[in-house]
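Hey, weird one. I pasted the Holliday junction branch migration complex subunit RuvA sequence into the form twice and got a warning about non-standard characters only the second time. First submission, copied straight from the form history:
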Amino acid sequence: MIAYIKGNITGITEEAVLVEAHGVGYEIICPNPFQFQMEEGKEALVHTYHYVREDAQTLFGFKNTEDKFLFQKLLGVSGIGPKNALQILAGVNVEEFVAAIEREDDKFLTSFPGVGKKTARQMVLDLKGKLVYMVSLTAIEASAGTESNTSKKRAALEDAEDAMRALGYQEREIKAVLPQLKKEDSDSADYLIKKGLALLSQKK
């Protein structure tokens, strides 16, 4: 098992980061490769999961051990494959996901691509109570009362993405600032648009 790779980030694509370590170039598939944009051309550590099947071997990479652990747990759920797990991790942080599992929030869980009601139910059955140690109880309790706020935040983020596209920014640029926008404590589309444009101007 390859637990992590430490080397120079030599390239970033829509799906992967390229890491050179000891003369070997590794293509590492990530939920959001652009999280590593600030490290491009520099040395970085990528936490990895080595996925092996009869017909393929793939390295999946993550910014932190929490995302990697959640990815592994998701793969253990019937009906969830690597593609589904990556899409979930790309659209949510660990705290939000664990809280949704604990409150059995099918509406939230089925908002991810490829996740229907049956798969959402299976995730709850397989994961409830097994991930809570990853986040604080206070965070879970707080999240239980903020379902509507989460929906508003998602809608505001979508509006911000659309606005940045309309202004001519490329998908690569937009994806690079999305992780920071998701951390903002605001569900105002106007605020997120202004914040996104400010972040984009800093990267030029």
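That's the output from the first submission. The warning seems to come from a hidden character in my clipboard, not from the data itself. Confidence is low (pLDDT under 50) at residues 137-142.
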